[in-house]
Amino acid sequence: xxxxxxxxxxxxxxxxxxxxxxxxxxxxxxxxxxxxxxxxxxxxxxxxxxxxxxxxxxxxxxxxxxxxxxxxxxxxxxxxxxxxxxxxxxxxxxxxxxxxxxxxxxxxxxxxxxxxxxxxxxxxxxxxxxxxxxxxxxxxxxxxxxxxxxxxxxxxxxxxxxxxxxxxxxxxxxxxxxxxxxxxxxxxxxxxxxxxxxxxxxxxxxxxxxxxxxxxxxxxxxxxxxxxxxxxxxxxxxxxxxxxxxxxxxxxxxxxxxxxxxxxxxxxxxxxxxxxxxxxxxxxxxxxxxxxxxxxxxxx
Length: 300
Fold this sequence. Notes:
Elements: E1 4-9, E2 13-19, E3 24-31, H1 38-41, H2 46-65, E4 70-75, H3 77-81, H4 85-96, E5 101-102, H5 105-117, E6 127-132, E7 137-142, E8 146-152, H6 156-163, H7 171-191, E9 200-204, H8 206-216, H9 223-226, E10 230-232, H10 233-244, H11 248-251, H12 265-278, E11 283-287, H13 291-299
Parallel strand pairs: 1-4, 4-5, 6-9, 9-11
Antiparallel strand pairs: 1-2, 2-3, 6-7, 7-8, 10-11
Helix pairs in contact: 2-4, 5-13, 6-12, 7-12, 8-10, 8-12, 10-12
């Protein structure tokens, strides 16, 4: 039986899934902030490359332990924006033996859709799958397969670096961030009206999972409590108001919020609540299945 591994080198985190198709053997996530400063400089920081590469060496050991024979490594928003991505690709190749694939935003979205909807009832569709990453957010609509996809340069790291500088963010910064994201989403809705046909909103990635975990007050990460948790709009708005008005030193103590994510959770929460407002969803189905699951499925 083949064993496959998928690695997602994202703007905010580096994640691994090892699976034999029947079950997930390993799931790992480390916040590495590959995209730190990329929006400003257009380059990947040497320290960020080193952080990711260190994690990739650890993942290579896990892959060897489990007899992995198929591997895909995906690079997304941060690498798309960076002029020196080849430096990172060379370091990643040395660490895991595979050159990362530079995915377009649409490719990223379609893989995320495949992973997130594999265990959903098609009769509940069409699904609007929204993957809120560190540097970009993908929007994909469909039931059994993706019908349309679009990626926007909106992400929790990017929005924080651009607009949310205060500790906590000032009311003016929050208003500007909400207005900016709302305008981007309104433009998207006009350009791609098919997105308004979604019957169910499915939210992916660390921001959505963190908001769900905070809402439930989870002291430690519990995938079973987060996967397919139904997050109401009222709850998302409440978490947003809470984290947006706390200083970072206080915010890190919220149960369910990883310390390393605390500095960008406000930006992510802005995107999440604006998606629910603009597309008029009262609930969001939280999914822990995502691009990694889509990558693994493509190999098995």
